[in-house]
Amino acid sequence: MLPFITYNWPSRAWPRVKGFFEQLRKEEGSSLPVGAAGFCWGGKQVILLAHGDTIDGRPLIDAGFTGHPSLLSIPGDIEKLKVPVSFAMGDHDAYLSVEQAENIKKIVEAKEESARGEVVVYPQAGHGFCVRADHKFAESTRQADEAAEQCVKWFNAHFGSAS
């Protein structure tokens, strides 16, 4: 884990992530909406992408989703959101307390319509529940499935459903 964290600390990874989304926006994203989903460490990157950096007059992403994000600076990272983001968080997350989740919820739900996000807190869910559900437990599987559905609904609401 230490090599991953060292190489991918948010400030070190951000230029690579930003460069990828700048290139994506220039190519496929010039005429199509761009979304980003990130989990844990990737959630921080989604939040940074949603801060409103632009390329050719368009934001790097049009909407974002994050499950159990980590390494957030609260309230600073959340107050800077210019793009709507949906959050899926557990109330037993070791990296984000219920109080922090409620603070995020207050901030994103109070934003103007173009940047308004949502927060869903899943009871009895811990860090990693979206992507590392223990399928021996029906509740764990259900919560992971609900978070996946939350993500799909969020992007469908912002980009329209694919036919």
Automatic annotation (TrEMBL):
InterPro entries with a match to the protein in the record: AB_hydrolase_fold, Dienelactn_hydro
What is the top-level taxon of the source organism? Eukaryota
Signal peptide (residue range): none
Query: In what residue span(s) does the Dienelactone hydrolase domain sit?
Result: 29-158
**Which one of the record's GO molecular function terms can you name?**
hydrolase activity
Question: One Pfam family name from the record?
Answer: DLH
Its name, as the record gives it, is Dienelactone hydrolase domain-containing protein
* Protein species of origin: Trichoderma parareesei (Filamentous fungus)
